[in-house]
C-alpha cells in the first residue's frame, strides 16, 4: 500500500509526501465519514487539494467520503488495526477533556513501572520526567500519525518514553506492527527497560550506544520518528540531533520530538539557528508538557520542540568518526558548590571531581564529620571550557536590488571593500579582486583579524558578502552598514554566525 500512496503523492505533485495521505486515511477509517472540509482541517491541506486526494482514493477503490470494504481492509492491514479500540482513538484525538482525564486515570497504572527507573545520573544530564509527562509525550506520536505501523527510536531513554509509547500502543492497537528501539549509554536504563518489555510483552528493543560514536549501520535511515531528551549544552543537542538525522528515513515529514532545557533568548536563538542549518522545520514548541522530578537546575520544566524533517537534512556533526568534544553540562561547565554543615560547621565541596558530585549524595551520606544531613550553601562557582567562547564572528550579508553597473566595476568594488575594512577598524594585510567575462566580480580583503569577501551577480542585481573576524572588538556592523549603503541595496539581510564554538 505504501507504493500506492507514493504513486498518488507523485500524481498529485504533493509536497507534503505520502505521510499526509496516511493521516487522511486514518481519519476516514476511524471517523467512518469525513467531509472535504474536515479532512482539510485534519491534514492542513487546501480544500481543492483534498478534493483531488479523495478522487485518487476513489480510483484505488478505497472510497471517497467514506471507505469501501476494500478501503477498510487495505487500511486495517497497512496499519495492523485488527482489534483496535476505535472509540479510544477517536476520544484521544478529538476530545481534550477526555484526553486529560485519560492521562490522570493511567498515571497510577504506570507509576509502579516507573518507580523501577534507576536513579538519575546527573553527570550525563539525566533528569527523570514525571509519568504524566511521559504519557503526554507518547500522545504526540498519535497526534502526528507516528504511532501506528511505524519505527520509533528513543535516543537516550532515562525517561522511559519507550514504555509509555508501548503502553499507549497496546491500549489503541495491540496488534500494530510498530517497533520501538531504545539506544542509550546507561546500561542500567537498558537492562530495566528490557526486563519491563519482556514482562509486559512490549515491542521494545534495547541496545547500548554512545552518541559520540558513529551511528551503527543497523540503525541508519530506519526510523519514522525520534524521541530525544538531549544534554543541556548546545553542542550536546547538536550531536544528538545529528544522530537523529542519521537514523531517520531519508524522506521529508519525519518527526523528532526534542526536549531541551529553557535558555536565554541568545542561547535560544543559537539553538534555532542550528535547527535551521540542519534542515529542520519547527512545527511547534510545547511549553506545557515537560515536567521533571526534583530537577532544580531546570526549574523542573523544559520545552519540547516538534521538529519536522525536510529534503535538505544535513547533520550538524558528521557521522564518519568519533566525536571528541565534551557534551555534558558537568563537563562543559564545571560547577562546584561549597556547603557548610549546619551542625559542625565543616565545609564540603560538591561537584565533578569531588567525593560528592551532587548535594543529594552529600545529604544521603551525611556530613563526614558528624553525620548531620542539613547543609547551607556558602559559595558557587562555574568554570566553562575554553571552546565555549566563539573563535570567530561571521556575518553573511545578502544584498539584492543593487546598483547593477557598480556590481560589475572591479575597481569601485575593491575600493568599497577596503574602505569597509577600515570602517571596521581592521588592519589590511593584502587584497585581490578579479573581474569575470562578461560580468561578475569576486574579491577578498585579507585582514590581520581574518577577511572580507565578495561575489557579485550583476545580471541578478545580487552580491554575496562575508565579513569574518577572530577579533570580537572590531566594528563589524559599521562595515556592513557602509557596504549596504555603497551598493545601494534595495533589500539587505544578514546572518550572524559564531565560529569555532
Task: Name its key features.
501 residues; alpha+beta; six-stranded antiparallel β-sheet; 16 strands; 38% helix; flat
> Could you tell me the strand content as a percent range?
15-25%
> SS-based structural class?
alpha+beta
**Net shape:** flat
Give the strand tally: 16
How are the strands ordered across the major sheet? 3-2-1-4-5-7-6
Mean pLDDT: 89
Task: State the end-to-end distance.
Answer: 46 Å
Helix content: 25-40%
Which residue ranges are poorly predicted, with pLDDT under 50 across at least 5 consecutive positions? Answer: none
Seen as an oligomer or otherwise, the chain set is: single chain
How many H/I helices?
A: 16
Q: What this model shows, in words?
A:
This protein is an alpha+beta fold. The chain contains 16 helices and 16 strands. It has helices at residues 2-12, 18-31, 36-43, 47-59, 69-79, 86-94, 96-114, 131-143, 161-172, 187-200, 234-247, 265-278, 329-332, 359-365, 410-423, 476-486; strands at residues 151-155, 179-184, 204-208, 225-229, 255-260, 281-291, 301-308, 333-341, 347-351, 375-384, 392-400, 428-435, 441-447, 450-457, 462-469, 491-499. Strands 3-2-1-4-5-7-6 form a 7-stranded mixed β-sheet, sandwiched between helices. Strands 12-13-14-15-11-16 form a 6-stranded antiparallel β-sheet, covered by helices on one side. It has a 3-stranded antiparallel β-sheet with strand order 9-8-10. Helix 3 (36-43) crosses helix 4 (47-59) and helix 11 runs parallel beside helix 12.
Amino acid at each position: 500500500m505504501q507504493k500506492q500512496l507514493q504513486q498518488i503523492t507523485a500524481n498529485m505533485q504533493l509536497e507534503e509526501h505520502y505521510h499526509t495521505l496516511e493521516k487522511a486515511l486514518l481519519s476516514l477509517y476511524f471517523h467512518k465519514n469525513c467531509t472535504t472540509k474536515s479532512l482539510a482541517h485534519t491534514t492542513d491541506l487546501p480544500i481543492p487539494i483534498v478534493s483531488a486526494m479523495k478522487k485518487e482514493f476513489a480510483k484505488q477503490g478505497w472510497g471517497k467520503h467514506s471507505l469501501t470494504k476494500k478501503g477498510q481492509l487495505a487500511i486495517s492491514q497497512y496499519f495492523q488495526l485488527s482489534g483496535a479500540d476505535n472509540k479510544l482513538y477517536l476520544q484521544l484525538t478529538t476530545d481534550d477533556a477526555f484526553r486529560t482525564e485519560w492521562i490522570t486515570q493511567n498515571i497510577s497504572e504506570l507509576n509502579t513501572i516507573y518507580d523501577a527507573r534507576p536513579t538519575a545520573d546527573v553527570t550525563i544530564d539525566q533528569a527523570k520526567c514525571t509519568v504524566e509527562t511521559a504519557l503526554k509525550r507518547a500522545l504526540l506520536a498519535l497526534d502526528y500519525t507516528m504511532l501506528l505501523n511505524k519505527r520509533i527510536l528513543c535516543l537516550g531513554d532515562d525517561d522511559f518514553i519507550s514504555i509509555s509509547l508501548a503502553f499507549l500502543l497496546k491500549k489503541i492497537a495491540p496488534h500494530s506492527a510498530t517497533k520501538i528501539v531504545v539506544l542509550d549509554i546507561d546500561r542500567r536504563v537498558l537492562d530495566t527497560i528490557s526486563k519491563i518489555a519482556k514482562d509486559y510483552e512490549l515491542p521494545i528493543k534495547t541496545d547500548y550506544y554512545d552518541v559520540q560514536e558513529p551511528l551503527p549501520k543497523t540503525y541508519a535511515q530506519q526510523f519514522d520518528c525520534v524521541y530525544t531528551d538531549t544534554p543541556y549544552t548546545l553542542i550536546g543537542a547538536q550531536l544528538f540531533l545529528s544522530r537523529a538525522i542519521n537514523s531517520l528515513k531519508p524522506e521529508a515529514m519525519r518527526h523528532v520530538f526534542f526536549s531541551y532545557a529553557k535558555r536565554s533568548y541568545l542561547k535560544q536563538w543559537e539553538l534555532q539557528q542550528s535547527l535551521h542549518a540542519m534542515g529542520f522545520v519547527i512545527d511547534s514548541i510545547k511549553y506545557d508538557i515537560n515536567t521533571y522530578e526534583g530537577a532544580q537546575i531546570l526549574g523542573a520544566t523544559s520545552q519540547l520542540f516538534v521538529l519536522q524533517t525536510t529534503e535538505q537534512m544535513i547533520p550538524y556533526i558528521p557521522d564518519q568518526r568519533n566525536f571528541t568534544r565534551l557534551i555534558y553540562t558537568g563537563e562543559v561547565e564545571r560547577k562546584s558548590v561549597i556547603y557548610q554543615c549546619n551542625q559542625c560547621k565543616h565545609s564540603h565541596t560538591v561537584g565533578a571531581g569531588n567525593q560528592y558530585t551532587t548535594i543529594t549524595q552529600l545529604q544521603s551520606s551525611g556530613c563526614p564529620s558528624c553525620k548531620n544531613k542539613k547543609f547551607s550553601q556558602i559559595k558557587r562557582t562555574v568554570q566553562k571550557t575554553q571552546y565555549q567562547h566563539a573563535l570567530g564572528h561571521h556575518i553573511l550579508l545578502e544584498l539584492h536590488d543593487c546598483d547593477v553597473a557598480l556590481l560589475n566595476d572591479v575597481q569601485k568594488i575593491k575600493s568599497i571593500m577596503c574602505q569597509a575594512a577600515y570602517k571596521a577598524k581592521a588592519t589590511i594585510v593584502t587584497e585581490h579582486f578579479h573581474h569575470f567575462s562578461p560580468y561578475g566580480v569576486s574579491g577578498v580583503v585579507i585582514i590581520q583579524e581574518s577577511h572580507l569577501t565578495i561575489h557579485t551577480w550583476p545580471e541578478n542585481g545580487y552580491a554575496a558578502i562575508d565579513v569574518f573576524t577572530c577579533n570580537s572588538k572590531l566594528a563589524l556592523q559599521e562595515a556592513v552598514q557602509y557596504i549596504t549603503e555603497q551598493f545601494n541595496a534595495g533589500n539587505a539581510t544578514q546572518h550572524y554566525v559564531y565560529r569555532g564554538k
